[in-house]
Known about the structure:
Blueprint: H1 2-11, H2 13-23, H3 28-42, H4 50-64, H5 69-87, H6 93-111, H7 121-136, H8 141-159, H9 182-200
Helix pairs in contact: 1-3, 1-9, 2-3, 2-9, 3-4, 4-5, 5-6, 6-7, 7-8, 7-9, 8-9
Bound molecules: adenosine-5'-diphosphate (ADP) and magnesium ion.
Amino acid sequence: MVEEVCAALVAAEPELTMMDQAVGDGDLGISLARGAEAVRREFPGYGEDPAAVLRALSATLRRALGGTSGPLYAVLLLRAAAVLEEAGGVPAARDWARALAEGARAVSELGGAEVGDRTMLDALVPAADALRQALDGGAEPCGALSAAVEAARKGTAATAAMTPRRGRSSYLGERAVGRVDPGAEAVAIWLEVVSRTVCEGN
Ligand code: ADP
Ligand code: MG
Protein backbone atom coordinates (compact mmCIF):
# COMPACT_ATOMS: atom_id res chain seq x y z
CA MET A 1 0.00 0.00 0.00
CA VAL A 2 2.80 2.41 0.89
CA GLU A 3 4.50 1.67 -2.42
CA GLU A 4 1.26 2.28 -4.34
CA VAL A 5 0.65 5.57 -2.51
CA CYS A 6 4.19 6.71 -3.31
CA ALA A 7 3.76 5.80 -6.98
CA ALA A 8 0.46 7.69 -7.15
CA LEU A 9 1.94 10.82 -5.58
CA VAL A 10 4.93 10.75 -7.93
CA ALA A 11 2.54 10.35 -10.88
CA ALA A 12 0.41 13.25 -9.62
CA GLU A 13 3.35 15.65 -9.45
CA PRO A 14 2.55 17.61 -12.64
CA GLU A 15 -1.15 17.96 -11.78
CA LEU A 16 -0.47 19.05 -8.17
CA THR A 17 2.24 21.45 -9.36
CA MET A 18 -0.20 23.13 -11.74
CA MET A 19 -2.86 23.33 -9.06
CA ASP A 20 -0.47 24.85 -6.49
CA GLN A 21 0.90 27.26 -9.12
CA ALA A 22 -2.62 28.60 -9.56
CA VAL A 23 -3.36 29.25 -5.88
CA GLY A 24 -0.01 28.92 -4.05
CA ASP A 25 3.69 28.85 -4.87
CA GLY A 26 3.72 25.71 -7.04
CA ASP A 27 5.87 23.51 -4.82
CA LEU A 28 3.29 20.99 -3.58
CA GLY A 29 3.72 18.48 -6.43
CA ILE A 30 7.50 18.50 -6.08
CA SER A 31 7.32 18.33 -2.28
CA LEU A 32 5.01 15.31 -2.24
CA ALA A 33 7.01 13.54 -4.94
CA ARG A 34 10.21 14.18 -2.97
CA GLY A 35 8.51 12.87 0.18
CA ALA A 36 7.35 9.79 -1.71
CA GLU A 37 10.86 9.08 -3.02
CA ALA A 38 12.28 9.40 0.50
CA VAL A 39 9.67 6.99 1.82
CA ARG A 40 10.49 4.49 -0.94
CA ARG A 41 14.16 4.62 0.06
CA GLU A 42 13.59 4.36 3.81
CA PHE A 43 10.57 2.04 3.89
CA PRO A 44 12.64 -1.18 4.12
CA GLY A 45 13.84 -0.04 7.56
CA TYR A 46 10.39 0.77 8.96
CA GLY A 47 9.56 -2.67 10.36
CA GLU A 48 6.13 -4.29 10.33
CA ASP A 49 4.24 -2.88 13.29
CA PRO A 50 1.60 -0.46 11.91
CA ALA A 51 2.14 2.18 14.61
CA ALA A 52 5.91 2.01 14.16
CA VAL A 53 5.46 2.36 10.38
CA LEU A 54 3.34 5.49 10.84
CA ARG A 55 5.91 6.90 13.28
CA ALA A 56 8.73 6.24 10.79
CA LEU A 57 6.67 7.73 7.94
CA SER A 58 6.21 10.84 10.07
CA ALA A 59 9.96 11.15 10.64
CA THR A 60 10.78 10.67 6.95
CA LEU A 61 8.20 13.21 5.82
CA ARG A 62 9.16 15.75 8.46
CA ARG A 63 12.64 15.75 6.93
CA ALA A 64 11.86 15.27 3.25
CA LEU A 65 8.53 16.90 2.49
CA GLY A 66 9.12 20.58 3.23
CA GLY A 67 6.68 23.42 2.73
CA THR A 68 3.63 23.72 4.94
CA SER A 69 2.62 20.16 4.10
CA GLY A 70 5.79 18.73 5.73
CA PRO A 71 5.01 19.56 9.37
CA LEU A 72 1.28 18.99 8.82
CA TYR A 73 1.72 15.46 7.44
CA ALA A 74 4.37 14.77 10.11
CA VAL A 75 1.97 15.66 12.91
CA LEU A 76 -0.94 13.80 11.26
CA LEU A 77 1.07 10.58 11.11
CA LEU A 78 2.58 11.00 14.56
CA ARG A 79 -0.85 11.45 16.18
CA ALA A 80 -2.24 8.53 14.16
CA ALA A 81 0.66 6.37 15.40
CA ALA A 82 -0.09 7.37 19.00
CA VAL A 83 -3.74 6.32 18.57
CA LEU A 84 -2.72 2.90 17.23
CA GLU A 85 -0.18 2.46 20.04
CA GLU A 86 -2.81 3.27 22.61
CA ALA A 87 -5.21 0.76 21.04
CA GLY A 88 -2.51 -1.93 21.23
CA GLY A 89 -2.32 -5.23 19.37
CA VAL A 90 -3.28 -5.54 15.72
CA PRO A 91 -5.30 -2.40 14.92
CA ALA A 92 -8.93 -2.95 13.99
CA ALA A 93 -10.69 -0.91 11.31
CA ARG A 94 -12.18 1.35 14.00
CA ASP A 95 -8.70 2.05 15.39
CA TRP A 96 -7.58 3.18 11.93
CA ALA A 97 -10.68 5.37 11.66
CA ARG A 98 -9.91 6.98 15.01
CA ALA A 99 -6.26 7.39 13.98
CA LEU A 100 -7.34 9.29 10.86
CA ALA A 101 -9.78 11.47 12.82
CA GLU A 102 -7.25 12.29 15.54
CA GLY A 103 -4.57 12.90 12.92
CA ALA A 104 -6.83 15.43 11.22
CA ARG A 105 -7.47 17.06 14.59
CA ALA A 106 -3.71 17.38 15.12
CA VAL A 107 -3.37 19.10 11.72
CA SER A 108 -6.05 21.54 12.77
CA GLU A 109 -4.35 22.19 16.12
CA LEU A 110 -0.94 22.80 14.53
CA GLY A 111 -2.07 24.85 11.53
CA GLY A 112 -5.07 26.60 13.06
CA ALA A 113 -7.37 25.78 10.14
CA GLU A 114 -10.87 24.35 10.36
CA VAL A 115 -13.18 22.71 7.85
CA GLY A 116 -14.30 25.39 5.38
CA ASP A 117 -10.95 27.25 5.34
CA ARG A 118 -10.02 25.60 2.01
CA THR A 119 -7.20 23.29 3.08
CA MET A 120 -6.40 19.57 3.18
CA LEU A 121 -8.76 19.41 6.18
CA ASP A 122 -11.71 19.82 3.79
CA ALA A 123 -10.84 16.36 2.44
CA LEU A 124 -9.48 14.78 5.64
CA VAL A 125 -12.26 15.60 8.08
CA PRO A 126 -15.24 14.49 5.93
CA ALA A 127 -13.28 11.35 5.01
CA ALA A 128 -12.62 10.53 8.68
CA ASP A 129 -16.28 11.19 9.55
CA ALA A 130 -17.53 9.01 6.69
CA LEU A 131 -15.14 6.21 7.61
CA ARG A 132 -16.33 6.12 11.23
CA GLN A 133 -20.00 6.40 10.28
CA ALA A 134 -19.74 3.59 7.74
CA LEU A 135 -17.98 1.31 10.24
CA ASP A 136 -20.53 2.20 12.92
CA GLY A 137 -23.21 1.21 10.41
CA GLY A 138 -21.62 -2.20 9.99
CA ALA A 139 -19.71 -1.65 6.74
CA GLU A 140 -16.66 -3.76 5.91
CA PRO A 141 -13.30 -1.93 5.64
CA CYS A 142 -13.46 -1.81 1.83
CA GLY A 143 -16.97 -0.33 1.80
CA ALA A 144 -16.14 2.10 4.60
CA LEU A 145 -13.02 3.29 2.81
CA SER A 146 -14.96 3.72 -0.42
CA ALA A 147 -17.37 5.98 1.48
CA ALA A 148 -14.39 7.89 2.89
CA VAL A 149 -12.96 8.42 -0.60
CA GLU A 150 -16.31 9.67 -1.83
CA ALA A 151 -16.47 12.12 1.10
CA ALA A 152 -12.90 13.28 0.45
CA ARG A 153 -13.71 13.83 -3.24
CA LYS A 154 -16.84 15.80 -2.36
CA GLY A 155 -14.95 17.86 0.22
CA THR A 156 -12.16 18.54 -2.26
CA ALA A 157 -14.60 19.66 -4.96
CA ALA A 158 -16.29 21.93 -2.42
CA THR A 159 -13.01 23.81 -1.81
CA ALA A 160 -13.41 25.43 -5.23
CA ALA A 161 -16.23 27.54 -3.77
CA MET A 162 -14.32 28.47 -0.58
CA THR A 163 -12.39 31.63 0.15
CA PRO A 164 -8.97 30.66 1.52
CA ARG A 165 -8.24 31.78 5.07
CA ARG A 166 -5.08 29.74 5.78
CA GLY A 167 -1.82 29.15 3.99
CA ARG A 168 -0.44 30.89 0.96
CA SER A 169 -3.76 30.79 -0.91
CA SER A 170 -5.14 33.25 1.63
CA TYR A 171 -2.98 35.94 -0.02
CA LEU A 172 -5.11 35.43 -3.16
CA GLY A 173 -8.40 35.70 -1.29
CA GLU A 174 -11.40 35.66 -3.62
CA ARG A 175 -9.15 35.13 -6.65
CA ALA A 176 -8.61 31.52 -5.55
CA VAL A 177 -12.33 30.83 -5.80
CA GLY A 178 -13.20 28.55 -8.71
CA ARG A 179 -10.12 26.38 -8.23
CA VAL A 180 -9.76 23.28 -6.10
CA ASP A 181 -7.32 23.32 -3.16
CA PRO A 182 -4.24 21.26 -4.12
CA GLY A 183 -3.64 19.95 -0.59
CA ALA A 184 -7.18 18.58 -0.45
CA GLU A 185 -6.75 17.01 -3.90
CA ALA A 186 -3.56 15.30 -2.69
CA VAL A 187 -5.49 13.77 0.24
CA ALA A 188 -8.15 12.47 -2.14
CA ILE A 189 -5.42 10.94 -4.32
CA TRP A 190 -3.65 9.00 -1.54
CA LEU A 191 -6.85 7.97 0.19
CA GLU A 192 -8.16 6.55 -3.07
CA VAL A 193 -5.05 4.39 -3.35
CA VAL A 194 -5.42 3.21 0.26
CA SER A 195 -9.03 2.27 -0.45
CA ARG A 196 -8.21 0.50 -3.70
CA THR A 197 -5.43 -1.49 -2.05
CA VAL A 198 -7.66 -2.57 0.85
CA CYS A 199 -10.48 -3.50 -1.54
CA GLU A 200 -8.11 -5.53 -3.72
CA GLY A 201 -7.02 -7.47 -0.64
CA ASN A 202 -10.60 -8.61 0.00
P1 ADP B 1 3.24 26.12 1.09
O1 ADP B 1 3.91 26.06 -0.24
O2 ADP B 1 2.22 27.21 1.15
O3 ADP B 1 4.19 26.17 2.24
P2 ADP B 1 2.39 23.41 0.48
O4 ADP B 1 2.52 23.68 -0.96
O5 ADP B 1 3.31 22.44 1.10
O6 ADP B 1 2.40 24.78 1.32
O7 ADP B 1 0.91 22.91 0.78
C1 ADP B 1 -0.18 23.65 0.35
C2 ADP B 1 -1.42 23.01 0.92
O8 ADP B 1 -1.31 22.94 2.34
C3 ADP B 1 -2.68 23.80 0.68
O9 ADP B 1 -3.24 23.47 -0.57
C4 ADP B 1 -3.56 23.40 1.85
O10 ADP B 1 -4.34 22.25 1.53
C5 ADP B 1 -2.59 23.01 2.91
N1 ADP B 1 -2.53 23.97 4.00
C6 ADP B 1 -1.99 25.20 3.99
N2 ADP B 1 -2.10 25.79 5.20
C7 ADP B 1 -2.76 24.90 5.99
C8 ADP B 1 -3.20 24.88 7.35
N3 ADP B 1 -2.98 25.92 8.16
N4 ADP B 1 -3.85 23.79 7.81
C9 ADP B 1 -4.07 22.72 7.00
N5 ADP B 1 -3.67 22.68 5.72
C10 ADP B 1 -3.03 23.74 5.22
MG1 MG C 1 3.05 25.39 -1.97
